[in-house]
Amino acid sequence: MDIVSRMRQLSLAAAKLPDIEKAKLWIVEWCPFVVGYSGTGEPYEFIGRYAGVIAKATASDLFFERQKEHIGYAMSMIAHSRFTDPASAVASVSVTYKIATIDKSNSRTSHLRDLDDRIAAKLERAHPSAAYSDIGDRIALLRHRGAHGVWGDLSGDAVFYGLLTAIIFLAQT
User: Fold this and answer.
1) Per-residue pLDDT reduced to its tens digit, 79-97
2) Where are the domains of the chain?
3) How far apart are CA 80 and CA 130, in angstroms?
4) What is the pLDDT of residue 140?
5) What is the 3-state secondary structure (H, E, C) of 98-141?
6) What is the pTM of this model?
7) Is the dihedral of CA 62, 67, 72, 77 positive or negative?
8) How far apart are CA 27 and CA 92, in angstroms?
């Protein structure tokens, strides 16, 4: 199947899913690798919609009142930027992944572990020798190496961060 047909097929599948599963599908299929995005514009629209939803939502344990505006603004930047825009280097959407997954009774944990398992399976098929622990390690790799100049374009992972933030927000309700 060619790439255009595959993207069309994934778009049709995503349209039938709840938003949290849609975001997981897009991460696994279109940005499973660090600093890479290969998909349609649908996640950008999705991230833009959730930028507004998060900014207006009631404060929670992960989305404090003063942080919501900043998270919403960062997600809005992601939604309206493309890889050719200087603003696409946004890559520090506030996500404390490792902490969120420690508490097994937390409603977010099952969704994040599901996402970890799906990304790991996809990576293993594509790169059997790649070491992948979890999304927390991916964030550390990008933040510690990517954000300091080893890789110049962080726009691919901006989509990842935006979708991950939406998953965490949706999982809390």
Assistant:
1) 887 655 555 444 443 355 6
2) 3-171
3) 32
4) 61
5) HHHHHCCCCHHHHHHHHHHHHHHHHHHHHCCCCCCCCHHHHHHH
6) 0.62
7) negative
8) 17
